[in-house]
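Could you help me review a protein record that somebody else here produced? My question to you is simply how this chain folds and whether the tokens agree. Thanks in advance; the entry in question is below:
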Amino acid sequence: MSSGPPIPVLGTENFYADLLRQIGGARVSASSILNDPSADPHEYEASPAAAKLAADSKLVIVNGIGYDDFMQKLLGASTKPDRVVINVQETLGVKDDVNVHVWYDPATMPKVADAASAALARLEPQNAAYFADQKVKYLAALKPVNDKIAALHTKYAGAPIAFTENVAGYLTDAIGLKVLTPPQFMEAIESGTDPAPADVAAERDLITGRKVKALLYNSQVTSPLTEQIRDLAVKSNVPVVAVAETIPATFKTFQEWQLAQLDDLEKALAK
């Protein structure tokens, strides 16, 4: 592996920065912009520090699907002819109306890993073999996550659950769980508007009637209503599983974070 100063790379969200760190290894210096576990990514306002990160980076991963639109402005403000931008929405070939939280889909990160490894090899052709090896390690570290999903599918497919909002929907779909929360309730919560009283009543009824095995609660973006729903679940003995939109500081890698959430979900479903 040839050396020199590490390549400055940016994952707009910290799980993409983590992917770049794992695949780029010793050859990259990775940063992220959306990494605060208590902040709402949908309401992020770009700062001068974020603008500098974007300007300095030679490889940038953005999620797309309207999740991190502020990046268009940041990247447009500093044109770099040799900068590579991986737009995950384009990599996956998905439309604008899908659930934005695509990193919860088990098929997403391997595709982003392919794109990242190819982009790094384009920036440093002499280290292409190193990046290819690092990608193999990244994918191997995803295997326990996929194995856990398969095991939960075998045991719990069809089990009913509730959401405060559709953050981990791709993951629960992969497991085969049945989301009973009214879709309009989740959409209202995600867009920061008040759900219709009938939808709130239906959600409360799922919990007080213990018609669901677990409540998946967005621990990162909360509101008085979602906190009330969580408290109601605790009071009604419905297990609450916290899911986040970025890797919480307690975890070192994307894989470790996903595995911990799956373990929590497994404990909840087993009750």
